[in-house]
Predict the 3D structure of the following.
Amino acid sequence: MTDRGMEFLKQVRDHLYYLKLRPGGIRLQAKGADLSGLRLKGFTLKSAVLTQVDFSDGELEDVSFDMADLFGANFSRAVLTGSRFVRADLRGANFLKASLRRTDFEEADLRPGQILTFSSGKQEVRQRTNLQDASLDGVTFKNADLSHADLTNSVMKGADFGGANLFAANLAGADLREANFTGAKLKRAILNGATLNKTILRNADLRDAVLRNVDLAEADVAGANLNGAIYMKGTGNLPPDVRRMLDAHIQWINSAGQRGTRADFTGMDLRGVDLTATDLSGAVFRDTLLSEASLSNAVLSLADFGGAKLCGTKLDQAVLTGANLMGADLSGAQAGDADFGMMELRRPDGTPTGRWWPANLTGAQLTGADLRGARLAGAKLNGAMLDNANLASADLRGCDESSFDLGRAYLSGTRRGALAGPSEPEKTALLAV
């Protein structure tokens, strides 16, 4: 063991005396210490002050951190099997890719932490608690506060979130099979692509939660409040081949293209299908028949609808940023509040490229389409047919109006003119460029 490790063990011994009220006991305080790679098993660090300590890559099994101050601590890639964090202060802590099987976080505080930095003047940074890609099978989060926490792509089979606060938490792509969320607060939480087989959501608050590509058919949602929630509703009636393609596309999205397969519906007859609240970003719908289908609240960024038939299709509140709709027929489509704006392309690691990709509606047929409140800023509309289209309160800024005719469109409150820059674009890291 290193001298650093030996010194810390002495402090742990003195801390144990402190907890037992024995002479010579001193409360453990190791603020900002570098303890990366430390190996401990069966020790108690209850009530210790370990603010911003680096425990990364450590092996800390069956360790008690109950009621400890671990504000901003770093546990990335650490093995914490069987450890306890009951009522611990873990605001802004980092558990990226940590192994936390059977760990107890009951009543722990995992809210964002306000971190002060001084690299370029005093600055306060709001840092989310990070549990991305963590192994959390059988973990207890009963009555814990995980508001705004990032749990994307974590494995939480059989975890207990009973009564926990997950307000605006991000659980996209998480494996939540057989997890218990009874009475949990999930208002405005993001669960896109999460697996909810045999998940218990009884009496959970899911108001305004976003569950795109999530099938609730096998979850227990008795008494759950789903008011304003966005989730798939008609997938049980999808043709088997379409369902298989959707499932493969979900894997493709959740793994950033490493697994699964991009959906390609080219030339298929999908008239009347219900794809509400699905995420089919980057999917191919060339020459596909989608008339009278429902794509409400769907995310279709960078999807290819070239030559597709979308007559009377429900596209209200759908996101079609950067999509290709060249020559598509959207006659009578219901696209109120849909987003056909520009999209910033990102690299696979999520960093921006500085390149913006507009939605392409060149030659699209939009006769009689309902586009009230739709965002078309910067879109290509060359030769688009907009006769009797309802563009009330729509955003047409940055569009070249000399390339299409608005003479027969309804334009009450329509925003027009120059566009200084992309306005609140939808961003994604789905596609490498």
